Amino acid sequence: MNADLIIKNAYVYLTFRQCFVKRDVAVAGDRFYQILPKIPCAGEGEKSDLIGADTQIVDAGGSYMIPGLIDIHMHIESSMTYPEEFSRIVLPQGTTTVVADAHEIANVFGLEGIRTFMDQKTDLDVFYAIPSSVPATDWEFETAGAEIGEAETAQLLKDERVLCLGEVMNFQQLTKEAEPETKIRRLVRLCRDARGRDIRLEGHCPKISGPDLNRFIAAGIDADHTQQTSESVIEKSDLGMFLELQHKSLTPEVVKTVDDHQLYENIALVTDDTMPDLLMEGQLNRIVHAAIANGMPVEKAIYCATYTPARRMHLDDRGMIAPGKLADFILLDDLQTISPRSVYKSGKCVEKKDWQASHYFPKRFYQSVLCRKAEPADFVLTAERADCRSVLTNVMKIHEFGTMTEAVQREIPVRDGVICWQEAGLCLVVIYERHGKNGNVARGLVEGAFSLAGAVATTWSHDSHNLFVLGNSPEDMLAAQQYLIAIQGGCAVAENGAVTAKAWLPVAGILSDGPVEEIARELGEVRAAMERLGYRNNNVIMSMATLALPVSPALKLTDRGLLDVKTQQPVPLVAACI
What we know:
It is a single chain. The chain is an alpha/beta fold. Helix content is 25%, strand content 27%. Strands 17, 18, 19, 20, 21, 22, 23, 24, 25 and 29 form a 10-stranded mixed beta sheet that branches. Strands 1, 2, 3, 4, 5, 14, 15 and 16 form an 8-stranded mixed beta sheet that branches. Strands 6-7-8-9-10 form a 5-stranded parallel beta sheet. The longest helix has 17 residues, at 516-532. It is elongated.
């Protein structure tokens, strides 16, 4: 049989030996056909019978040939775009397959939202996870726009593109064995009954260890993608968990632990969340580069971004360069940066494309911000007792790395019954339920956010995506919140009573329907404005947006109030009047 494509003079990555060897590679249709030491062409001796009149021959010129990258834990919505546009950007970067957990769009529009993603045509292979936690915790603790329950899960399980139950977050509900059986335990059982060992059960268990971690795994969840330490890598690996390392876990200490104990069979590299401005710099290739930069051997990093993720998700037709496997591959001139010279999907060279206008979403997806406009009184905290001179408050303290908060208590003076939170150097956060369910408004205090006067507001607030306002200037908080209602979703920074930076997200309040280049530029301006006001974090957008995520330690705020993440118990804003 003639080959359609022959790659000559490439140093081919051999997966099971995890090394590069000079080989010629023949592709027939969308599959690798033969990998040989040499495939003779005209002028190189006897011509191979693989070469026909229509065979395309590409001289790799000694470049490196690796399998297409496979990202098995990610959220397209984190790039604030939709599947077709995401595909346009990431395929030329070398990612050829993803497993998307669309729980962000699901938190706003449920199964309908997921279907709008699954119905889109993409050159990128997009498989799906069933969102397990919509809402992330329970209706008692937060208000989402929709729910994914047993009926929706049963429908999704029928689709062959569904490979796993997405990150199970609610530790308390998962490990609760009392009757009646909790929703998440019913979903786990439903997946097992419907698909058996064919479907993976993915987890989200930050800072869970010891007996709690054992109970989490015993309930059936055997993978985790959250931020790891050297200690958690050892403990979770010893207990049989598969670890999906995202950027914030790829510290030199964690990489050394993986290398010292040769845990590569138990590791995949993933992106989880990639903001649109960072997406322009790279997707999974950027994570591979970070792993290498922090000490992971190149051959191991490639293994953990191709073969181990494919094996984890039973994607047995890809992840290596071998006969019969899908011909997804990358040619690289440099193994350190993982910046592709060219990318091939199903045996065809990927060409960079310009954005084209598309309309994939129902009209009502553009009218999803249903809360009232802010009023000045929303940003005034009053003491319950008239004789209070000060109050002891529960405060969310943010850090300069990661999305976890620390629960601290701060004493704040009270004058004329008003809690003087600005004098204490704190920021106020107000969440407005924006799905038209109940009109809840909740308040919390944050330490470590802005040092200069200003505010930021967003409808892109994990995971329920209620309208979230953070600031130390009531005037600016008012301006930012009312601006987002007017544009029906996005992120906005306000200073001196006016919006100074914005990123427009009109689809469900979390997505742009324009080119990624445009939303990347806008979000970059929001990021810069937040940093100018003094917000310090390795990812200020994600740090801010996850202050509303009640499954990420330690203290978070939802539309129903402050919540202790581990115990899932409400926490009062004012602990005591003094």
